[in-house]
Amino acid sequence: MIKNYFKIAFRGFWKHKLLTLINIIGLSIGITASIAIYLIVHYDLTFDKFHRDSDRIYRVVSNFSFQGQQGSNCGICAPAAGAAKTQTTGVELSTPVYALSPDVFVTRAGNKNIPTRFKNQDRIILADQQYFKMFDYVWLAGSSAHALEAPNQVVLTSERAKLYFPGLSYDQIIGKIVTYDTLKTTVTGIVQTIKENTDLSFHDFISYSTANANKALDDQMQFDQWDSTNSAFQLFVKLFPQTSAANVEKQLNAILKKNTPPPTAETKGSAHWFSLEPLSDLHFSKYGIFDFSTAASKTTLYGLLIIAAFLLVLACINFVNLTTAQATQRAKEIGIRKTMGSSRSQLIAQFLSETFLISLIAVVISLGLTPLVLMLFSDFIASGIKADFIHQPDIILFLLILTFVVSLLSGFYPAIMLSGYKPVQVLKNQAQSNSSKTRNAWLRKSLTVSQFVIAQFFIMATLLVSKQIYYALHKDLGFKKDAIIVLPSPWKNRTLSKNRVLLNEFRAIPGVTMVSSGNGAPSSDQMNGTIAMYLDGKKEIKTEVEVKSGDENYIKVYQIKLLAGRNVRATDTGKAVIINNVYAKILGFRNPNDAIGKQLQSVNGDKNIAIVGVAADFYERSLQSPINPLVIEFPRGTYQNGVFHIALKPETAGGNDWKTTIAAMGKDWKQVYPDDDFDYQFYDASIAQFYDSERHTSTLLTWATGLCILISCLGLLGLAIYTTNQRTKEIGVRKVLGATVSQIVTLLSTEMVVLILLSLAIVTPVAWWAMNKWLESYADKTGISWWIFAASGAGMLLAAIFTSSFQTVRAAIANPVKSLRSE
Question: Helices 2-15 & 344-376, crossing angle to 10 degrees?
Fold first, then answer.
């Protein structure tokens, strides 16, 4: 019986080769997208799920509020770690970690005692024994019970051990010396490098007690400072079974409140509290993870799932449309089968088996296409996402489920409809009554409109995202961003004297227009803030302000406009600042000139700071963030003079001016910092990085839109083929009676145009609402223009007419004698 089903199915496929091919292509596109998106979603949702009792592991994070504004930090204050271990109930295990980024030195055999240096290494932490009890590692050498017991001990992962000491066995590496900057440690254990997806991908574990034995680390970690939160210092806790996370939070916050210093004039009205973040949320954390990890977005994952669902639905709509359109051609087959004794359930099985075969063929094709799709999007998907079907049994299960789901979605309704024909009506050529024809026609029209609605929604979304990106990249941000190089000096080795030497060397390079020394650029992820107070004679205005440091050339390099007053000078250090216009208005000055000479208090801990200038507002971050109150001060000390801002002369067309200038800068750099990389960046490129997420979204939407249009047009082509075949004799009669080719093409295309216009009317309000919701995340945004909707409708109309015209024009120019000779 089953063999007979498949024989009949293949016979039908061969008879209707073109329509079968259209169905297979449509399903292959939808299934390929589904597999690729499944791999991406599965990758992000499996982070750190392999640890035992992962549902009981939490990270303690910090929350802040001040004057109605809320902030957060993935770290905690150092003394809270000890308090969580000794002063709380319900906590089974507690392990603090402190992230480091040192240079690593190892001495290898045969190197004549000259150490090998690994610069600025990350994924290195201070950790205690509890860490390896909380998280699952396989031990290859050393003792899991005592490896981090004493100061100056270190445990390495197998990957790191082989890098540091190639050619040695794990047992031989035990006892070797590894130096972190100046801190000497002894290797006491080797653990297997974690192969599963994890954000805790550390590879060097230095004993936590080392911090107490090392003054520099002890001072850096601030073990006695309850009011100092550091994102490098994180705390993980594992709760006893049945313990409430809310109860532990309450205990931690009671401890914090007890130890927090009483509020001062500057901190009055602020709040600080802890919360517990489940380990399962770590990969999607709004608090951040570690510097080497990037949090994923659940919103993005849900968006991907929606795209996959839409593409699958579009392909299934095509199948239903084309199958129901062919219903009359199979009516006699069904009538004869029923007359010969076939039951309805057997006919349903026959039709579902045909759908299953097409779905299976599409899945096989998709298996070959998926690696190509992942390669195409390799720039913005994680490197760990691979189409390794053999070693990922869950993907095979997913494909089996997907095949059955697609088969049911595509084939269930056609199978029910086709199997429902009555043999008597079929054999009298009355397979479909007028009401049945009307019902099926309306079904096809409804499904076609649904396809056009989905496709036009994606077109509109793509146009809006592209418009917002263009707006962001071309908007006047309040400063110059082109032909400027930002060059941070190495934070470990930088000195004020070295930076001054470099400043003078850079100024002497012919291709350099101007050089400034300071900290962050006008718009950057780097943020320094303080609380400033101003007494207007009646009340005290206390404001959280962002602080930028730059010498007298800073606003000249970036061409920041002064609305009033003067620039900062070297003699202003700690005595005078420039404020932006937003801050001037907060202080009550509608005219910028009125702010000149007024005094601020407690900017960076100083008193009586004079306002000497008011600068025009500029964006301190992306357009998603509003312009905040800001002060610009003359840099003081090594930290605030850590970044060079270099304006280059315009490059001649086809010349190598910038290349020559940068080479000269690199040469000067190596004279001053020979052991550090010359790591510069063009400032306009760093501004563009703010919108990487939007560009990725735009790329994804563009592809999704293209695929939606392709699938919709494939279905439209199939329907056009069917419709013209059904109306062949009508077209012949019309031509004999004098109808022109253009009149016939118009006749055949009118219904399609009406369906597209109907879909445009349906999708426009939905898309407008969705666009508004998306734009709400931007403080400064583009408008939703009418042409987005018009372009979407016109584009869909043109694509549909172009697709169907192949068949309609062919039908219109056919010789009517051929279609009428049998009449």
Answer: 60
